[in-house]
Amino acid sequence: MSAPATPPPALQEFKDNLRAAPRRILETAFRSGNPSTDRTRSTFIFSNVFLHLHSVRVHRWTLKWSTSMGLGIATTAGFLLTLITGILLMFYYKPYPDAAYQSIKDIHFVVPTGRFIRNIHRWAANVMVVTVILHMARTFYTASYRRPREFNWLIGMGLLAVTLGLSFTGYLLPWDQLAYWAITIGANIAQSPREVTDAIGITGWFDPGGMQKFLLLGSDTVGPEALIRFYLLHVMILPLALMALMSVHFWRIRKDGGLARPADADQRLGNAPGPVYPVFTQAPLKTYSLAAIVRGRTPAVGNGPENTVPSMPHLFYAELGVFMLTTLVCLALALIADAPLKELANPSIPENPAKAPWYFLGLQELVSFSAFVGGIGIPTLVLAGLGLIPYLDREEAGTGEWFGGPGGRKVVFQALVVGFAAALAIESFAIRFGWIREWYLAVPQFVVTVLNPGTILAAVYGFYSVWLVKRYKSTRAGALGLFTCFLCGFLVLTVIGTYFRGPNWVFYWSPGDWPRH
Ligand code: HEM
């Protein structure tokens, strides 16, 4: 009879457990184990709170570089970088006019790594604006806004608006001359409906412009009330709104069946090159019975997961790559160029010219013709037009394809010519010969509001796209033309506003030509 095994002494057991603790911590954190089989790759995703918004398998079309160019992920990376660096900046920033400027100076010159973190924050915010605009253009040109993704396009527009709002509110926080006077201009734009209510003489009892300005600033001028409002919007309300919208945006991508792809994507892809992880290599752990009768096309009965690959590792490694590249670009920019900081804000000495952030300079150019048309009229038209795209274009040809739809590349190329030519011609005319107010001093403001370079440019683009709809008998062709023209106009106006406008918004070929005093 063999002697019973003696239990290990308690001290020995304690030592073994201590040695095994790091491995066990990992095992309990990632309960699915090493993602090396079909099943563990799936459990890796749906047992992780951050990853389970993804589906466990992804279509090979989605992974093609040209499908999304990673622009949505790059935008997400830009946001996370601004979020992390923004939280770090909050340790030192003080949102009171007499302390704000000094606290930014401290961050820039005194706090260890403060300048680097501030630079990353500024650059990541800029990168985010660029990538979100490119991402919107990508989803538009691949007609990915069509059924069932219409509402996600609208959520995207909300994301665009909140992204620009975050940037605008952040602009005031350093409380330097640039910030102070750019926000003063922004507030005057908010007040610009007065241009119309004054013209028809109703401002005394109906003043939406004045109300908008007061809501924005909490006062008649940019002061402590405005700073605390902008601060709260910048660090709390808008980031929360962005995170909520992003969650819905991502969740809907999943519910809409992943990214849009052409109907014949499977034929076009052909057989997968190289080895693909095998599907259904293990017997199922559970069995299912048909528990409900489901409406619609949801259960993919009879459809195998052909032409899909596990998200882990294919999709996640691609996403990780885009994250790392975006971070690298932001870090490099932060090392090369400093975020600007001018002198302390001085309400009695206007900055001239006071320029908004670069992506609002196209608007500022339009505002110089008419505050109401440039600041409210045209932006509202553009937003309404963009929002309606998926509901007006109900066609199917070309979904998921670059420049898909009737006319395709030819329309886009022609629209590039029309878009650039019209914007350059109208701007050159206005710069060279002036506009109605310079010709007839006494002309009523209402006439200038209705007839100015901005409204004429919008009308040219509008008529051109209606012509395209008729010519190709297709709403998509009209949308391709209008969207491309809109991008051209945005580019031309932004470049003129950024590089060729000086004091009093006069045109100069170079800042070297600006008057000295
Ligand atoms: C903060 C801003 C935004 C973030 C973080 C974001 C993120 C993403 C991501 C990660 C995807 C998956 C595909 C990809 O990476 O491109 C996506 C898809 C999509 N986004 Fe966005 N997005 C934003 C803004 C927008 C805007 C402004 C629009 C349009 C107005 C938009 C419309 C769409 C649509 C329609 C899809 C589905 C595309 C498809 O099925 O191919 N998004 N977004």
Account of the 3D structure:
This protein folds into two domains: 57-261 and 313-347, Cytochrome Bc1 Complex, Chain C (Up-down Bundle), CATH 1.20.810; 356-517, no CATH class. The chain is built from 21 helices and two strands. The protein has helices at 10-29, 38-46, 60-63, 65-68, 71-90, 97-109, 114-141, 150-172, 177-190, 194-199, 208-217, 224-255, 265-269, 311-336, 361-367, 371-392, 408-433, 436-439, 445-450, 453-472, 475-499, and strands at 57-59, 308-310. It has a two-stranded antiparallel ribbon. Helix 5 (71-90) packs across helix 14 and helix 9 runs antiparallel to helix 11. The model is unreliable at 298-302 (pLDDT under 50). The structure holds protoporphyrin IX containing FE. Protoporphyrin IX containing FE binds next to helix 5, helix 7, helix 8 and helix 12.
CATH classification class of the largest domain:
Mainly Alpha
User: How many helices does DSSP assign?
Assistant: 21
Q: What is the arithmetic mean of pLDDT?
A: 90
Cofactors and ligands present? Answer: protoporphyrin IX containing FE
Structural class: mainly alpha
Q: Tell me, briefly, the overall form.
A: globular
Characterize this entry briefly.
The protein has 517 residues and is mainly alpha-helical. The protein has helices spanning 10-29, 38-46, 60-63, 65-68, 71-90, 97-109, 114-141, 150-172, 177-190, 194-199, 208-217, 224-255, 265-269, 311-336, 361-367, 371-392, 408-433, 436-439, 445-450, 453-472, 475-499, and strands at residues 57-59, 308-310. Helix 9 packs antiparallel against helix 11 (208-217) and helix 20 (453-472) packs antiparallel against helix 21 (475-499).
